Amino acid sequence: MTGSAFLRLLVEERAGRRCEYCHRPQLDPGLPFQLDHIIPKHAGGPTILENLALACSRCNRCKWGQQTARDPRTGRMVRLFNPRQDRWPAHFRRSQDMLRIYGRTAIGRATVTLLDLNAPTEQTARRFWRKHLIQLFPLRDEK
Q1: Helices in the chain by DSSP H: which ranges?
Q2: Which of 35, 56, 105, 115 could form a disulfide with 62 if both were Cys (CB 3.0 to 4.6 A apart)?
Q3: What pTM, to 2 d.p., does this model score?
Q4: Average pLDDT over residues 121-138
Q5: For residue 132, pLDDT beyond 70
Q6: Cα-based distances in Å from 75 to 5, 70, 83, 134
């Protein structure tokens, strides 16, 4: 196993094979999630375990090289959710029907907005997941 393959395996296992931003389960190993540089490479972020997060292609594409976003409530620029520093439940909560994700904090709200976590396609995917896959991929670290 190459060093990069081993690093990917460590990131996937640490994340429980879920996107560390939206918590979408990685269902098909043939379509792997991406390794997101939390601090982007262009900003000097190294390719080391502590700077990598497992991200679905949608979250990774929306985040791209961003490190900050505007909190829609206050209008201030704030840093994005950092899976290595922050706990998901401190910054986010799910709606009662589990279809939407809400930001509890400025960081959470800015991340939800930038990553468009409540897009209709995301809610449709969560509806399917809730109905068919929750036994295989139970929610964790969200309470």
Answers
A1: 3-14, 57-63, 88-91, 106-115, 120-132
A2: 115
A3: 0.90
A4: 80
A5: yes
A6: 40, 6, 23, 36
User: If you search the block for the tokens 């994005």, which residue do you land on?
Assistant: 80
Q: Mean pLDDT across the stretch 59-64?
A: 97
Average pLDDT estimate for 17-35: 89
Could you give the CA distance from residue 48 to residue 104 in angstroms, rounded to a whole number? Answer: 29
Rounded Cα gap, residues 122 and 80, in angstroms: 20
Report the alpha-carbon distance of residue 78 to residue 68 in Å, rounded: 5
In this structure, are strands 68-70 and 77-79 parallel, antiparallel, or unpaired?
antiparallel
CB-based contacts of 110, cutoff 8 Å, min separation 6: 68, 69, 70, 71, 72, 77, 78, 80, 103
Reported as a pLDDT band with limits 50, 70 and 90, residue 63 is: very high
Sign of CA dihedral 15, 21, 24, 28: negative
Which DSSP symbol is given to 25? B
